[in-house]
Every structure is written in C-alpha cells, then in structure tokens.
Amino acid sequence: MTNPAPADSKRQIPELTSIRALGAFGVLLTHAAFWTGHYTDDWSGRLHGRWEIGVTIFFVLSAFLLTGHWLGRLADGSSSAPPERPSVRRYFWHRAKRVLPAYWIVVTVAYLVHSGDNPAPTGAGFSGWLRSMTFTQTLQFGWIHPGLSQMWSMVVEVGFYLVLPLVGLAIWSAARGRVKAGPVLAIIIVFGLIGPVWTVLSHQFDSLPVVSRLWPMAYFDWFAAGMLLAYGRRVGWRANLPACWALALGFFILSTTTHAGPATLVPEDVNQALWKTLLYGLSAALFVAPVALGAQVRWLRHPALVWLGEISYEFFLVHVLVMDWVMTQMGYQTFQGSMLAVAIVTAAVSIPLSRALRWVTDLMTGRQGPAGLWS
Fold first, then answer.
1. How many CB atoms within 10 Å of residue 25?
2. Which one of 61, 96, 372, 375 is most buried, by most CB atoms within 10 A?
3. What 3-state DSSP class applies to 183?
4. Rounded to whole angstroms, how far apart are CA atoms 339 and 322?
C-alpha cells in the first residue's frame, strides 16, 4: 500500500469515525455507572469506572487528525517546490466553527435547566456561565455546573487546540519543512513528556489545587500518542491489527487493577495516576493504531456505526444533561438504579437530540456533508 498523500490526513476515514462512536458510548457507560452507584470498591466497580477510556480515545483521535494536517504539508523530497506551511488562521477558524456553536448551546441550556442549583463556590450565575463558555471552569474546584461534569475534557481538548500550532510550527522550523524523523519525533516526545511531569507536579505541590490534575498539561502524553500515529501514517508505518487489539485489551484489563487506583476520575496518589495514564494511553493508542495506519475493518465501516460517529461530539455534549432527566423520570435517586437501563434510555433520548443539534449547528455554520474528523 502506498504512502498516503498529504491531503489524506484530512480525508474522512470511516473506521475512525466509528471509533469515535465507541468512545462516546464508553463515556456514557462510565457516567451511567457512576450515577447509579456502580463505582464500587472491587474489580467490577473499577471496570465500570474505566469505561472513561473513551475520553483517551477521543484525545488520541483528535491529535492524529489535527497533527496530520501539519505533517501532511511536509515535503518528502519528491518535489522541488517549496512546501506550503499550514495556515494557523484557517486552523483556528475550523476548530471554532466545529466546536463552539454546539458547545455554547449545551452550556446555555444547562444553565437554564439548572438555574436553581448553586454548586460551591461559584459554579452558578452569570459568572459561572461565562467561565463554562470560555473553558475556564476547571481553574478552581466547584466551578463545574450540574449537567456539564463531562466538560472538563473539553477544557483539555481546547487546551490542546491552542498549543498544537506552536508544536506544528516548531516541527516545521526544526525540520525545515521536510519529513525528518529526528526533529519530528524529538518534538513529539518532548511534548508528550509534559504529561507525566505535570502529573507529578500537581500531586507534589500543595500550592496547586487538586483540580489542576485535570488541566490540559496532564494529558499531553495521550495527545502525543495520536501525534506519533500521524507521523507514522505520513511515513508509511503499518501495524498488525490482531496483535495491537490484543495488547490494547491487555493494557485495559491491567488498568482495572488497584495499581491504577479506585473507580474515580482522579486517582488517590501520584503512582496510581501515572499508572492509569500510561495504561489508558497505551490501550487507546494500540486500539486506534491499526486503523490510523491504514487497516480496513469491515464492521467499523457499517453505515449505522459511522452515522453515530458523525454525531458523537454532539452526543458527548448532551448525554449528561439527558441522564439527569432520565434518572428523575425513572424514579432513581443519586447512586441507585440500573446502570444498563439508564445507559440505554439515555442513549435513546440523546441520539435524536444529538442529530438535531448537529443539524442546527450545520445551519449556523453553513457546513454541508458528513461530519469528518477534521470538519
């Protein structure tokens, strides 16, 4: 199979779109498990908590596609024409157009629906709404509003969006617009090391708030995994699908042990945090790698799964608000009820809402056609 053309990094890859759907449903399952009291102190509880690896998959996919936008422009020596550096302005415009309209709509709806709730100290009111709208709600504990608990990962995602051009320009400058393994890999590895370094710092320094463990820097290693895959696709790496998926499953199972901590978003100590981050990163990267590097998987090309992947971002945004409503309608109090029933009903309600939200934002932005990973 020939090396992909530079434009290939922006082409919709059906399998990766379907993987986005799997990631979204993983996040749904972990939230359903939490709200129905299934984050128990045993292996089963840790397993339910570990479905949050869907977020890791999202980060790896995001970095793969967006970094490919930069690496795809690097010259490979087959042409004498000077390479064209990607437009930073166009990059930010595409990111804003894809992310902000739906996010702002859901945030505003959450504040209208939960206008009477007042999480301490200042998660509600106009100031709380403004923080959520500007992705600054994780700067201090208590600023995350009800119905928007999952948005900490959007803060991380947007943080990556902001620094990626700096990384891309560093690669461009160091490699002088050419595909050179040394400079490219060195910059990606250094960028990835920021993650574990920040994890250690955020656990060791009392001057940093606990919520700093959720800041974007703590997850740069997951993004670096996707960046490595983008480089690998650019230069023609290949991966054995059965071996990669077997290893991915193995690392995921290891993440359910006590080494990675209890079934909580933030582990209890730095060792657990490092193990959890490493195992999640390896599992997600190995799961994505074969498809990212060119393998075709028939069942991941099923139209229904691809369609769900196309609305996975909107599904991610709305499902917690929907789950709050579903819990009430099913007569469940917090930390009780059927995890599976809540997940199924939440999905059934969230899917049409997600499609409608996608339709509205398409009209707002003038976007047409299927929702590719880049669009």
1. 19
2. 61
3. helix
4. 14
What angle do helix axes 220-235 and 270-292 make, rounded to 10 degrees?
A: 20
Residue 219: left if φ>0, alpha if ψ -120 to 50, beta else—which one? alpha
Q: Write out the E strands in the chain.
A: none
Q: Do residues 287 and 245 make contact, with C-beta atoms less than 8 angstroms apart? A: yes
Contact of 317 with 106, CB cutoff 8 Å: yes
How far is residue 43 CA from its own chain's centroid? 25
C-beta atoms surrounding 263 within 10 Å:
24
Q: What are phi and psi of 178, to 5 degrees?
A: -120, 160
Cβ-based neighbours of 70, under 8 Å, separated by 6 or more: 86, 164, 168, 171, 172
The amino acid at 179 = V
Query: 304, exposed or middle or buried, with CB in 10 Å at 0-12, 13-18, 19+?
Result: exposed
Cα gap 296→4, rounded to integer Å:
14
Report how far residue 239's alpha carbon sits from residue 289's, in angstroms, rounded to the nearest whole number: 7
Residues in the chain, how many? 375
Q: Nearest-CA neighbor of 316 among 6, 52, 140, 128?
A: 52
pLDDT, one tens digit for every residue, the chain (375 residues):
333 333 344 457 999 999 999 999 999 999 999 999 999 989 999 999 999 999 999 999 999 999 988 888 787 766 556 677 888 999 999 999 999 999 999 999 999 988 655 554 556 788 899 999 999 999 998 899 889 999 999 999 999 999 999 999 999 888 888 888 899 999 999 999 999 999 999 999 989 999 999 999 999 999 999 999 999 999 999 999 999 999 999 999 999 999 999 998 888 899 999 999 999 999 999 999 999 999 999 999 999 999 999 999 999 999 999 999 999 999 999 899 999 999 999 999 999 999 999 999 999 988 765 544 433
Q: What is the DSSP string of 25-66?
A: HHHHHHHHHHHTT---SSHHHHHHHGGGHHHHHHHHHHHHHH
The first and second tokens of residue 324, run together, are: 């709050």
Q: Name, in order, each residue with C-beta under 8 angstroms of 158's C-beta and a sequence gap of 6 or more.
A: 99, 135, 216
374 within 8 A of 66, measured Cβ to Cβ: yes
